[in-house]
Amino acid sequence: MRDSKRTNSTNGSGQVRREIVDLPLEMISEILSKLPTESILICRAVCKTWYAVSKDPCFVTELDNSQYQPTRLLLKPQVGKDISTPSYLVLVDIEKRKARQIPLDKMILDLQIMCSCNGFLCMASRKKLNPVVIYNPITMERVILPPSNMKSTVFCHEVGFGFDPSTDKYKVVRAYTGLSSRRKVRRFEIISLGESSWRELTVPQSIANRDGWAVMFWNGALYWTLSKGISTIVVQLDLTDEKFNVISFPRYFSSRHSSLGLIDVGGHLTLVQCNASVVKFWRITKNDVGGDLSLSLQVTYDTHVKWGCALGCSYVCQMNQESYLLQVGYWNYAHQRCENLSQYFPAKVQYSEFKIPGLPESFKTLRLKPNLSPLPAAYVPSDL
To answer: Which neighbouring-strand residues pair with 353?
Structure first.
């Protein structure tokens, strides 16, 4: 390994100019890997050597597995009908309680963040099938998926995005309700990044006529909560065999007047059920016999808060063994939706406002681990 040294040179005006410290590449890589991903982007502009190190595939892989790259929150500001959408996202460092704005490409300004996987976002419209975009908010790179051939009116559109470990490919799955022959039809379509067209998935009758809520990628599969009237189910789509599994609910489970959400709690996929002043945590587990998925109740807390239409909450993530991070939403006196973050200690029934300067008044939240990985290859039409 070379010794570190600093060399001097003279510029055109005769002034001494100091060059960047000459360090072994291994040491530069080690130093950069301990910086936040956003700071590494700044370091790329320092010199060609640092740029080359940050682009090296081995460095990018090491960065993805580094303990110095914690998961962040990514917020997309939400606004009213008469106000234009802000052209930025907000990246939040939970540990340091800092927020910074990330410019958002104008082409995808009006799209919703549907799902995320390995630091990439899947963005689409809830009322239109096209476009569907895979986006890296850190590098601002994007790929546009092939358009759908479906020409009818779309009433509801949800898109999931995940990684299939059996093929090392990313897959995008969408569910939408459209109009065909004057009747509503529910369809599921799938595409692997790199393919030129969507394929229709065979859907069990039990989920064919249900509307979907948020979709989440977890451990090689996509998970939806689907509803019809007061009946709600959780559905898994295994990305390897591309088959659906309906997660069975206990007989005493009632989703009526409940708010449901999926989060990772201690390495386990958990369904969080908020019902009036009670919250229940249901763990999704695989049965030893047959391998079917089911729900098992883990814990119930009395929140001592009357949640409803005027005041609601969703669980963002588990902070530690004693607390969770909540997104609390309410309507102000001007009939505008406002939200903030709050730390909830269920055992103590305590709430503490999680103050972070620079947050928008209303936002959609997801967890994201920033990365510098290049976007996976995708088919791009020649006219784009």
So the answer is: 342
Best CA proximity match to 339, nearest among 358, 313, 306, 368: 313
- Sketch the domain layout of the chain as residue ranges: 27-69, 70-368
Question: Torsion angle of alpha carbons 23, 27, 28, 34, nearest 10°?
Answer: -150
Taking only the tens place, the pLDDT of each residue in 183-204 is: 777 889 999 998 999 999 988 8
SS3 208: helix
What pLDDT shows up at residue 80?
67
Whether residue 134 contacts residue 114, with contact meaning beta carbons closer than 8 Å, is answered with no
- Tell me the per-residue pLDDT of 98-143, one tens digit each, with 9 for 90 and over: 999 998 888 888 899 999 999 999 999 988 999 999 999 988 889 9
Q: Which of 295, 299, 327, 291 is nearest to 311 (CA)?
A: 327
Q: What is the distance between the alpha carbons of residues 78 and 64, in angstroms, rounded to a whole number? A: 30
- CA contacts within 13 A on the Cβ side of 22: 9
- Give residue for tokens 């895979």: 134
Is residue 82 within 8 A of residue 379, CB to CB? The reply is no
Phi, psi (rounded to 5 degrees) for 20? -65, 145
- 198 three-class SS: coil
Looking at the domain that runs over 70-368, which CATH code has it been given?
A: 2.120.10.80
